From TrEMBL:
This is Ribose-5-phosphate isomerase A. Catalyzes the reversible conversion of ribose-5-phosphate to ribulose 5-phosphate. It comes from Arenicella chitinivorans. The gene is rpiA. GO terms for biological process: D-ribose metabolic process; pentose-phosphate shunt, non-oxidative branch. GO terms for molecular function: ribose-5-phosphate isomerase activity. Pathway: Carbohydrate degradation; pentose phosphate pathway; D-ribose 5-phosphate from D-ribulose 5-phosphate (non-oxidative stage): step 1/1. The active site is at E103 (proton acceptor). Substrate binds at T28, G29, S30, T31, D81, G82, A83, D84, K94, G95, G96, G97, K121.
Length: 219
């Protein structure tokens, strides 16, 4: 089974977690896009969505799905999104599509985070995927120096500006023994908006798509 087929399986499986009239938090990326396409099929059953990026908002609207501002709806019952890496403890690395900050905000405002990935994303240890860090532009060199002190090799993502007008530094070769601690430490560097570790608030449910169908891991 191809990763695309596996993503399609979990996108479909996530629909089963939704309830009538809910406002659904929607993530960003190729897997979230498949979920959006599935959502379009049942759009009359939901009240609307909150999107974690301009790209997802545009795709949702193109399907005729209502997109609310998070500030207008309060907390959400559910957030559905992909990830770049996931562990069986439901810790994640996200941000390959540069949407990590809004994703972290919508996830934080949601009661349940359903993470949907093809099973190639399941790892024993996070960090083979370079960790994305969103940075205020004037702080990029300072933040990069601090990331070197933490043992990482920071690389500016060329030509990328986030929906919030900031930059992304991808940190290679970071030793991530304790994901929640690394998440906290990097977030304390002045100029960092947030980093792509989702460990202090990881997923609540991980749906893994593969040749044996969908496997469900829960926190
Ligand atoms: O910023 C992007 C997000 O964190 C995505 O959820 C993540 O990169 C996974 O994307 P994809 O489903 O395309 O592998």
């Amino acid at each position: 089974m191809s990763p695309e087929q596996a993503k399609q399986l979990v996108a479909e499986a996530a629909i089963a977690y939704l309830e009538w009239d809910w406002v659904v938090g929607v993530g960003t990326g190729s897997t979230a896009n498949l979920f959006i396409d599935e959502l379009a099929k049942i759009k009359r059953n939901i009240e609307g969505t909150v999107a974690s990026s301009e790209a997802s908002a545009e795709r949702l609207r193109s399907h005729g799905i209502k997109v609310y501002e998070l500030n207008d709806v309060g907390d959400l019952p559910i957030y559905v999104d992909g990830a770049d890496e996931a562990t069986k403890h439901l810790d994640l690395i996200k941000g390959g599509g540069a949407a990590l900050t809004r994703e972290k905000i919508v996830a934080a405002a949601s009661e349940k985070f359903i993470c949907i990935v093809d099973d190639s994303k399941l790892v024993d240890r996070l960090g083979a995927f370079p960790l994305p860090v969103e940075v205020i532009p004037m702080a990029k060199s300072y933040v990069a120096r601090q990331l070197v002190k933490l043992g990482g090799n920071p690389v500016l993502r060329e030509g990328v500006v986030t929906d919030n007008g900031n930059l992304i530094i991808d940190v290679h070769h970071l030793q991530i023994d304790n994901p929640a601690e690394v998440e906290r430490t990097i977030n304390q560097i002045a100029g960092v908006v947030t980093n792509g570790l989702f460990a202090q608030r990881g997923a609540d449910v991980l749906l893994l798509g593969g040749s044996n169908g969908v496997r469900t891991l829960t926190a």
